[in-house]
Amino acid sequence: MRKGSIIPCLLTALFLASLTGCQGPEGPPGPAATADNGSLEGFAANIKCGTCHTAEQDTNYFVEGRAYQWAQSKHAKGGDSERNSASCSGCHTTEGFIQRMGGGAATNQSAPSPPGCFSCHSPHQRGDFSLRKSTPVLIKSQIATVPDATFDYGPGNLCVQCHMTRDLNPKPDPTKSAPTDSIVITTARWYPHYGVQGQMLMGEGGFKFPDYAYQGNSIHTTATIIKQEGCPTCHMAEQVYPPNLGTGKAGGHTMNIRFPGEGGGEATLLTGCKQSGCHAAITTADFPGSSTAPVGAQTAIAANMDTLHRLLESRGWLETDQNSPNYGLVKIPASGKLVIKPAIKSGALYNYFFIEHDLSLGVHNTLYALDLVRSSIAELRKP
Description:
- By secondary structure, the protein is mostly helical.
- Among the domains are: 49-126, no CATH class; 137-218 and 289-380, no CATH class.
- The protein has 14 helices and 6 strands.
- It has helices at residues 6-20, 57-71, 74-78, 89-92, 94-101, 117-120, 123-126, 156-159, 197-202, 224-229, 232-235, 297-314, 346-358, 366-380; strands spanning 137-139, 149-151, 183-185, 258-260, 266-268, 338-340.
- The strands form 3 sheets. A two-stranded antiparallel ribbon has the order 1-2. Strands 3-6 form a two-stranded antiparallel ribbon.
- Strand 4 (258-260) and strand 5 form a beta hairpin.
- The radius of gyration is 27 Å and the shape is globular.
């Protein structure tokens, strides 16, 4: 060996010794690995990371592109993941939702993440991007004497695991119409929560007054493509550039219908609306839903909702103080109890929140929404 080669060898030996020669006593064994936590589901047998996580555009871009879309979604930006208690985390956090879909109860989440990729998919454990669950969903009725209903709209069934009403107490009752019948409301949040879209689409969940002639539902309730695909039919329709300029801002995994327009203002995703057999000539979401809404579904609903709002305010049932934390919600008097007689009229208050929280201004089910708001107005106008 040449003399000059001895020094590098000695340095290498010293380096290796430093890695192994200063070990202390071995510590106690750590806890066994577990997959009980909702965010640790394990991995499918023989799964290969490179199937998705590669530098090639046809695999990596598939994942990253949809992750970028999701980052523009309300799930990412407005999912209220801070609502991480056991009673809310089952929908407002990925971790709680995974627990629910696994058949367990959602628990408190100390470091929650908003509803994201792993809420709807479990690619590492399943080895694919299939939906966690797509079976029909039984939705409990929040109207007394009205039976529960089953939502069955294909992949949309997963959406409605959360986009449905929550338990309400006391429940409004369409049979309580006598002058002496009363309902006592003690919370400003007496409404069917914000996820009512499932019931609105299927024409269930609203309060119906016995003496009003209801027309039924819009075509969205029974259209073949919507029955097969559910919510993704419109909310996840992929745009193509050109001519559409909303790629990455609406549709896909953004699930957005409204998005910032290129020239300023707001644009609307209509790709799903223009599918074969649907609204080929549609140019706006404010589309005439029927002969009873010739000016456009959203315009008609907005006008009627404004009337209903004023009627509810005049009865003192809505909080009008803008400095109140309950502004716009149910107004609870100083006594702590809002008493409504006859109790049947509380159905108008219920319908107001049901339609408002649907967020579509009647697009999901125009005929049904119009009937609910108009029947509520008629009821409040009775002596």
